[in-house]
Amino acid sequence: MEKRFMDSQIKGVSTGTTILAVTFNGGVIIGSDSRASIGGYYVSSKTINKLIQVHDRIFCCIAGSLADAQAVTKAAKFQISFHSIQMESPPLVKATASVLRELCYNNKEELQAGFITAGWDRKKGPQVYTVGPGRYVTQSAVHHRRIRQHIHLRLRRRQIQT
User: Does the keyword Transport apply (predicted)?
Assistant: First the structure.
């Protein structure tokens, strides 16, 4: 199996998930592939939506275990909607990323998922955050994630203190 994995890298065969988010003056661009694979070698579906709307102007790009990611985003949607009603204003993108961070950290032993949270708010405009499996949130103008067996970030980033 190790040789097969190395051969796929040499030949340039794509395995895993790719999600991307980029900020520009007017907003955020997000994207992903639409394949769902089992074990990295078998494509089980070619039409999976990996871009989830969490609030009016905030989206999550999901990668890793689809079931885990969907459960976390569903819980985040509920918490963000509740927070928005309490505050009587739309949620901040950073607050949404923080909610996802807490959900991921509190369930870190069970989760196999990663997220990019992207959106626009009145306070800071367009923003992109990566929420990792640990207790960190990073911000950058460009985020790109490639998922194989473990989550790897391939981008320049700066640590955000939240």
Answer: no
